[in-house]
Design brief:
The complex is a heterodimer. By secondary structure, chain A is of the alpha/beta class. Helices cover 39% and strands 23% of the residues of chain A. In chain A, the strands form four sheets. A seven-stranded mixed beta sheet of chain A has the order 1-2-6-5-3-4-7, with helices on both faces. Chain A has a five-stranded mixed beta sheet with strand order 13-12-14-15-16, with helices on both faces. In chain A, strands 17-21-20-19-18 form a five-stranded antiparallel beta sheet. Chain A is globular. By secondary structure, chain B is of the alpha/beta class. In chain B, the strands form four sheets. Chain B has a seven-stranded mixed beta sheet with strand order 1-2-6-5-3-4-7, sandwiched between helices. Chain B has a four-stranded mixed beta sheet with strand order 9-8-10-11, with helices on both faces. In chain B, strand 18 and strand 19 form a beta hairpin. The relative contact order of chain B is 0.11. Classes of the chains: A alpha/beta, B alpha/beta.
Chain lengths: 453, 458
């Protein structure tokens, strides 16, 4: 297999390995392109805790200043806070310097438009066109603006959360909480948030030094330290974030990871119980969401994987709640973006209002079994494989080809097969009311794909 | 004929030299270019510690961010001194035992410009050989590219003034200056020395009357110390009863002065004045460039000190100063360097030595100037696109071929009663004509002769 390029330029931004493909010059040029795209106004610049962040940030400033923009330096910040600040101030855009869950040697730029949303496909393409044409709106000395430092990245975010949540109800319970922020942006701000909610807080993996102590994805297999800590501390609940503090997974009072899919499920149930309306999730998200929504007579709209896709559909359908099954809760009343803080707040509020434990909350949810598996497959072959599979399995159930292949069977089981954008694998997500069915479907398709790849 | 519309079509106002890179913001001085140069420099100093400082220009943060990103990517740890006069940046390089420094300032150029000035570990500007090496690395694009865990760190430092002024006060006769209780006007042109001149005067016991002393980067006049920019200062000398007035460049490297009677003195005489005083403190070789007033020759001869002339340009003159073990160096643009203090052009040192002279000799500055032999000097600059420079210099050389010209740097011709020097500027797209003579008319005639040849070519 040919070596994959360590530079990824696409609609979600630009990502590369520092010291190889992600050079300061490349970053600066992209920042000039972005500044040219949004115009000469205030641009929020925030970053995650990666060690390369300072270097990349300076390169971003250089590019923005050169085209007459006014950088607002918020330093290390959760990604949702950057988006919300952009939306709620006079900023006309933002650049988030973060490579999410990629390994430490990477870094990346993610571009945000005026409304505090990541650029959609069309906007991102326009930005790329500007970049490729190298026609930037460089300004002369007298049009330069200064860099402004903003020492409170979470100001607008927390103000919105504290307005939305029933703070008094949560405070009254004085929950004991353990959190694991993966040495990422949540390290500084999560304890602050939880303390305002009256919680007793214990943190692990909470040094904001960019050295990831575990795989940043808050999946059950990655958060055993948190599970142990919750047990040891006899805490009411454990929260695991990814390094950007946009995704959230929950650990119950017995130290069991409940599964990252349930974060969105719990949030959907809470929001619909207050306000009915459409729900938007992606094609791989648990069908528990559909069952909950059905109880409230609300429609569920499914989209292609990707926060931007979910956000667009949320706006188009006037959704009241949305998200992605990987732990990304999106509450439009705060902002249509993945936000671990709104997730934490909602879960704590559920516990407070219902006077139940986490495991009791989970027991109330519809029960489905989900299996996730990756099958190695080179990119070139992966896409043709989808076509072969579709042809072979047409007629078995409902087919959805918007993002890979999803087959929904009459008994409610489903499988979603999709090539990864980031690795040479095909991702299988299967769910069924019947555990054996979930495993059987997974194994059968995995073998089939392996034979084709 | 001096100014020219610098926005003509096809004009590339970018000056790359051993001293660094200088250009017009928004046109030739782009962030990527700056980052590339910073990467070249970071590679050259082998990922060592680098001190970075800037003047007050509005584009300064952009240039600094570009440079810092480049330096960090090569593994250099950066100490950011924020807004800081260039001589103090140079001082800090040695204080911190850094591998080098970058001064972000276009000195005497107007506000449209900015520049990177490279400083080596000795705290002086790169000499021509060091500069060549950096340029070679720049052209090769072969920069050190460190991985995520080997990048440089960024630190801030803003408590450096006491250390610098302690050293300066050790070097000067502060007691004498303090006792004299001078009233001093200083115009830092809203550049890097704004606010710092207050500390300078306080340490020397002078009363400061500041003009243009806000670090805004909005230059009320060109930041070039010379009589035409000294009118503001001159107009208040008598009303406030000042003993002297000083003009500084935006990086605090150059100085020109205004006397106690309000006379604006050519920047040509800053160095001769300081030289006149300093050779009384310490004798030794003197270095100047090929375009400086004969007054310097006269003073050096009077004190029996050898005078060595270098090519015009900071990197040349400082290099020769160190190579010849000179005690002092200076240029006709108002710069002075005393290696015993530090091998850098330093306006604070220049001002301090002048005040020391006034204090010890108990004479007014106007009187002290009268002790110097003075000539008539005419300085002109003619706009010349880079591609025509060669032709122009050729023609000029041809014109003076029978008069034994010195061709080290452009064309210099010496006569009994004066000299003329025609050369291409390294900081602007100009041909400089400098003519000096005992007699004004002769200087004018010679200047005009050169200018007519140049105009013919252009």
């Amino acid at each position: 297999m040919p070596r994959r390029s360590s530079l990824k330029v696409g609609i979600s931004g630009v990502r590369g390995i520092v010291g190889e493909t992600l050079t300061p010059q490349l970053v600066t040029t992209f920042a000039e392109a972005f500044g040219t795209f949004v115009g000469a106004g205030s641009v929020v610049v925030g970053r995650d805790t990666r060690l390369s962040g300072e270097m990349v940030k300076n390169a971003v400033f250089a590019g923005l200043l050169a085209v007459g923009c006014k950088p607002i330096d918020v330093g290390i910040s959760p990604v949702p806070s950057i988006l919300i600040k952009t939306n709620r101030t006079d900023a006309i855009g933002a650049i988030a310097i973060t490579a999410s869950h990629n390994p430490v040697e990477w870094n990346a730029l993610k571009f945000v438009g005026r409304g505090g949303l990541f650029l959609n496909r069309y906007e991102a393409q326009e930005l790329l066109d500007i970049y490729h044409q190298s026609e930037f709106s460089l300004v002369e000395a007298d049009a330069y603006k200064p860099i402004t430092k903003d020492d409170d990245p979470v100001k607008e975010h927390f103000a919105a959360l504290l307005h939305y949540l029933d703070v008094e109800a949560i405070r009254g319970r004085n929950f004991k909480v353990v959190f694991d922020s993966c040495n990422g942006a949540g390290s500084v701000f999560t304890p602050r948030f939880l303390e305002v909610l009256g919680c007793r807080v214990v943190g692990i993996n909470n040094v904001p030094d960019g050295l990831f102590p575990r795989n940043p994805e808050p999946k059950a297999e990655n958060i055993s330290d948190l599970c142990d800590a919750v047990k040891a501390e006899k805490a009411d609940i454990g929260f695991a974030q990814d390094a950007d503090a946009d995704r959230l997974a929950i650990v119950d009072e017995e130290g069991r990871a409940i599964g990252e899919e349930l974060t969105v499920a719990i949030a959907v149930k809470h929001v619909l119980s207050r306000e009915r309306g459409p729900v938007v999730v992606n094609l791989s998200t648990t069908a528990i969401v559909d069952r909950i929504a059905a109880e409230f007579d609300c429609p569920v709209i499914r989209t292609r994987i990707g926060e931007v896709n979910v956000a667009e559909a949320m706006a188009a359908n006037r959704a009241v709640i949305g998200g992605e099954g990987n732990g990304g809760v999106m509450v439009p009343a705060i902002h249509p973006c993945r936000d671990s803080f709104v997730g934490m707040g909602i879960v704590l509020q559920c516990l407070a209002e219902k006077r139940k434990t986490v495991s009791e909350l989970v027991a109330e949810l519809p029960r489905l079994v989900m299996v996730k598996k990756n099958v190695e497959c080179s990119t070139e072959v992966a896409h043709s494989t989808m076509t072969v599979l579709r042809k072979r399995h047409t007629g078995e159930g409902e087919i959805d080809t918007r993002d890979g292949l999803k087959i929904t069977y009459p008994d409610g089981s489903w499988i979603h097969i999709r090539p990864s954008n980031t690795e040479p694998v095909v991702r299988l997500t299967t769910e069924s009311p019947f555990p054996e069915k979930a495993h059987e479907l997974t194994d059968r398709f995995a073998r089939e794909i392996a034979s084709l790849c | 004929m001096e100014k020219h519309d610098m926005n003509g079509p096809g004009l590339r106002l970018l000056k790359i030299s051993a001293a660094g890179v200088r250009g017009i913001v928004g046109q030739t001085l782009t962030p990527e270019l700056i980052t590339d140069f910073a990467c070249a420099f970071g590679t050259y100093v082998q990922s060592g510690l680098v001190v970075v400082g800037r003047d007050t220009r509005t584009s300064g943060e952009m240039v600094k961010s570009s440079a810092v990103a480049g330096l960090l990517s090569t593994g250099c740890t950066v100490v950011d001194m924020g807004i800081c006069p260039t001589p103090i940046i140079q001082f800090m390089v040695r204080q911190l035992s850094a591998s080098g420094g970058i001064a972000i300032s276009a000195g005497h150029n107007d506000s449209r410009w900015n520049a990177l000035g490279f400083i080596n570990s000795r705290g002086t500007h790169l000499n021509p050989y060091e500069g060549e090496e950096v340029l070679d690395i720049y052209h090769s694009g072969d920069f050190t590219k460190r991985l995520w865990n080997a990048l440089g760190k960024l630190d801030q430092k803003n408590d450096y003034l006491p250390g610098y002024f302690d050293r300066l006060c050790d070097f000067l006769d502060v007691a004498a200056i303090r006792a004299a209780g001078f009233k001093v006007i200083i115009d830092p042109c809203n550049g890097a020395a704004a606010g710092i001149v207050n500390v300078f005067c306080e340490r020397l016991g002078c009363q400061l009357v500041p003009i243009n002393n806000e670090p805004t980067g909005i230059f009320p006049h060109d930041p070039e110390p010379r009589p035409r920019n000294a009118r503001q200062v001159a107009s208040i000398v008598k009303p406030v009863g000042a003993d002297i007035g000083f003009l500084l460049s935006s990086d605090a490297a150059r100085v020109s002065l205004v006397t106690d009677v309000g006379e604006t003195i050519s920047e040509e005489y800053t160095f001769p004045l300081v030289l006149h005083h300093f050779l009384g403190r310490k004798k030794g070789p003197v270095v100047t460039n090929l375009s400086t007033t004969k007054t310097v020759d006269d003073i050096a001869r009077r004190c029996d000190c050898p005078l060595i002339k270098s090519q015009v340009g900071q990197s040349h003159i400082l290099h020769v100063m160190l190579a010849e073990d000179a005690v002092i160096a200076g240029e006709g643009c108002g710069t002075v360097a005393v290696p015993e203090f530090q091998p850098a052009f330093d306006a604070f040192l220049s001002m301090g030595l002048i005040l020391e002279m006034m204090a010890r000799r108990r004479k007014r500055i106007s009187q002290l100037l009268n002790e110097l032999p003075r000539y008539h000097i005419i300085k002109e600059k003619i706009y010349c696109p880079p591609e025509k420079v060669h032709n122009v210099i050729d023609e000029v050389r041809d014109e003076y071929r029978r008069e034994t010209p010195d061709l080290t740097d452009g064309v210099r011709v010496d006569w009994q009663d004066g000299w003329i020097h025609v050369r291409a500027s390294t900081t602007e797209p100009m041909i400089r004509v400098i003519a000096e003579s005992n007699h004004k008319e002769i200087a004018r005639e010679r200047a005009d002769r050169a200018i007519s040849i140049i105009s013919r070519v252009l």
